[in-house]
């Protein structure tokens, strides 16, 4: 057995290390060798279990700090051999919704007060996808259409998967990323409702108000089925783990212990309802009726827009009348990324994009429209070859605020998510104007996403390839939804221009007295993005 504490700076935990122990800044590691007996238990309290009773041996480093002339602090070790370690592990013989917890205890057989003595260590883990999962044939059937709030989730429809295999493939893909838990602003007073069925325990609830929580899927199992009527369906099992957004998602996804912050779930998707409906049980479960009081609904919208960026939407609601119920549903979602959309474009499986801001963007274009003679004079400098394929920007830029003459170097990503053509007629001349949507994200010098209230910013509007200009409406996330009163103008250089920079101007349309108002600023690329 390997036991250790790491701050994450060393990457993966060195479980295969040949060293008996490691002690260095940011990492402590101890290996213990065990041997013992295995037996099967039919305990009436814990049910049928696999039982391991083991005796361990370790080499324990005992540190002796001292100060010398060359080092302020130096650690010297003496080694202590300890063969008085007892480990008891209990594994369930069946692996299902209510039986998946691995429980154990490690304790010292040395006398209390000796150098080798330690307090009892409690171990919590779970069986995983390498065990044979048994889906519950008698699982209570629950409908995901009982609540009117479901209409909020399905206003953009549900994606129709061609087969249960396609559904499982999509679910596995989206489960690799963390989900954002969305605060339910209908109830700002009942703290117990903020995390739905999850139980914070000793954790402070201030994390919610300071930075939200997230969810990760663990040990996802998705089995495809086809019934006698050729109805496509899939049985699904997983564990949902909640954690503060400030924590590393990969670290949380690697945790195996069951607690009040985990929800074991099981359910079914079928092609008729187009959604996944599951029952959930909090923490370590001994019976379905004990803590299986949650209904989980997952939906894949088939339309996205500037205000609907969810690749998947989910909700957790209470189906219990007990005192431990939560009153309002907990919503969570996974957002589209440009990489997702580009991948779907290549597969020709991209959802329908609903343009809703192009009229506002067109009005913005008209307001900034140059004179006819000026527009015609630019014609030789721009190529009109249909949709241009070099509008994405991945390069360094200077962010400039005119109000304080402050320049900041950033790394900028602006990626096209979708495009479509419309036609505008001016003075008997036909000009192709492209409807377009994009996502803008800024990073600092260390390529960390800037904790800036303006980003990521979702953009939608029109592109005029004759003038090389985009006129866009931007939506940015704020504490209570989206701020879509943002205007963005993008100016691309001509091929003959001596300055190859792209200039982006971002302006708030709110009054200066509005809390969401921000001062206008520009972004100017340092290199030719093409």
From TrEMBL:
Taxonomically, the superkingdom here is Eukaryota
What name goes with this protein? Answer: DUF2921 domain-containing protein
> Residue limits of the DUF2921 domain?
20-121, 152-324, 458-521
Q: Which organism is it from?
A: Stylosanthes scabra
State the Pfam families in the record.
DUF2921_N
Q: What is the lineage of its organism?
A: Eukaryota, Viridiplantae, Streptophyta, Embryophyta, Tracheophyta
InterPro entries assigned to the protein according to its UniProt record, in alphabetical order: DUF2921_N
